[in-house]
From TrEMBL:
Cofactor: pyridoxal 5'-phosphate
Its EC number(s): 2.5.1.47
Keyword entries, A-Z: Amino-acid biosynthesis, Pyridoxal phosphate, Transferase, Transit peptide
Tryptophan synthase beta chain-like PALP domain segment(s): 8-301
Protein name (record): cysteine synthase
InterPro entries in UniProt: Cys_Synth/Cystath_Beta-Synth, P-phosphate_BS, Ser/Thr_deHydtase_PyrdxlP-BS, TrpB-like_PALP, TrpB-like_PALP_sf
GO molecular function (one): cysteine synthase activity
Domain of life: Bacteria
Associated pathway: Amino-acid biosynthesis; L-cysteine biosynthesis; L-cysteine from L-serine: step 2/2
């Protein structure tokens, strides 16, 4: 069957798979929505497509123009791919400490790359401000603005959420997601709550992100750092505002090592680092709530994109992480007693 006339038509309609090992271990079914199946290899293809299609519909984009975006990489890959489908050019502005796997993919898709030093958001040389300034100074450029442009969350409200709802036959107890821009958790959780208020939405937040503390105490404060890329926010952005969140859990990078090795060994699933955090969040929810749940989360991108960090022993040692996974029963026992690492919240945003 021919399913599209251009590459961007292949975005979405991804498969859902059970993680057998962790489902057996926890007594709850844990499902993964396989977003690595998107043609650009990540969940961010969905945002890229919606951002560009909505901009065309509003008359902001015309063929021949250049899309400009500040990105940790995956949005840049998605936008490069969708830009080609629509006769556009793409310039990605990226901090220079991200995985080289992603820079290579942007170039392979014909995107131009500008790398900048990683600096705090308040510095005008941050990749976000650099991209905005570049686009604002040129009439043939359009700034995608994935943080504040709510076409991003709309992609997940219109497509990701409904696809999951249908694949799960309307039976979901718990939905777990990380947040980078909040587009995924914003759009999908809004859709789920409209279907069934009882669906328990969990945010999984890494060290180095301020969202957990924001939901707990109203202030963006972060501790430590994380190898996950494009995950966590230190400010309130419009896409995140759409999220409806019931629980948040803060988990360390060491657990991503343990869980990624466990599902690789037992299930043949090679998780990217944000996906490993999603799975850690799902196991935490299962451990806290007890057996019998149907839990859904995402494999956000290809594990290959984390080869130089999550799967690289010398990188892990340099970050003072052990390449040796913790015994899984020990991790599960710890997750039953997360204490202040898990909070109840009634964040309803907009
Ligand atoms: C691999 C991966 N997972 C998850 C996310 C976060 O998704 P969202 O921006 O929709 O919150 C990102 C964002 O860059 C990502 O690259």
């Amino acid at each position: 069957m021919i399913t599209g006339q251009r590459m961007s038509d292949l975005i979405g309609q991804t498969d859902m798979v059970l993680i057998p090992s962790l489902s057996r271990l926890t007594g709850s079914e844990i499902f993964l929505k396989c977003e690595f199946q998107n043609p650009g290899g990540s969940i961010k293809d969905r945002a890229a497509k919606q951002l560009i299609e909505d901009a065309f519909a509003r008359g902001e984009l015309e063929p021949g123009m250049t899309v400009v975006e500040g990105t940790a990489g995956n949005t840049g890959i998605g936008l490069s791919l969708v830009a080609k489908s629509y006769g556009l050019k793409m310039l990605a502005v990226m901090p220079n400490d991200q995985a080289p796997e992603k820079e290579r993919m942007i170039a392979l898709h014909g995107g131009e790359l500008m790398t900048v030093d990683p600096v705090p958001f308040k510095n005008e040389n941050h990749f976000y401000h650099t991209a905005r300034r570049y686009a604002e100074q040129r009439s043939d450029c359009w700034w995608a603005n994935q943080f504040e442009n709510t076409s991003n969350a709309r992609a997940h409200y219109l497509h990701t959420g409904p696809e999951i709802w249908q694949q799960m036959g309307g039976k979901i107890d718990t939905f777990v997601s990380v947040a980078g821009t909040g587009g995924t958790i914003g759009g999908a959780s809004k859709y789920f709550k409209e279907q069934d208020q009882a669906i328990d939405v969990w945010l999984a937040d890494p060290d180095g992100s301020g969202i957990f503390e924001f939901l707990k105490a109203g202030e963006y404060v972060s501790h430590g750092s994380s190898m996950t890329e494009g995950i966590g926010i230190m400010r309130l952005v419009d896409n995140f505002k759409q999220a409806k969140i019931d629980h948040a859990v803060n988990l360390p990078d060491q657990d991503l090592v343990t869980l990624s090795r466990y599902v690789r060994e037992h299930d043949g699933i090679v998780l990217g680092s944000s996906s490993a955090l999603n799975v850690a969040g799902a196991v935490a929810a299962a451990a806290q709530k007890g057996p019998g749940q149907r839990i859904v989360t995402f494999a956000c991108d290809l594990g290959e994109r984390s080869a130089s960090k999550l799967y690289n022993e010398s990188y892990l040692k340099g970050k003072e992480l052990s390449p040796e996974p913790e015994p899984i029963d020990q991790l599960l026992e710890r997750y039953r007693q997360l204490g202040e690492k898990v909070i109840k919240t009634s964040w309803r945003g907009d």
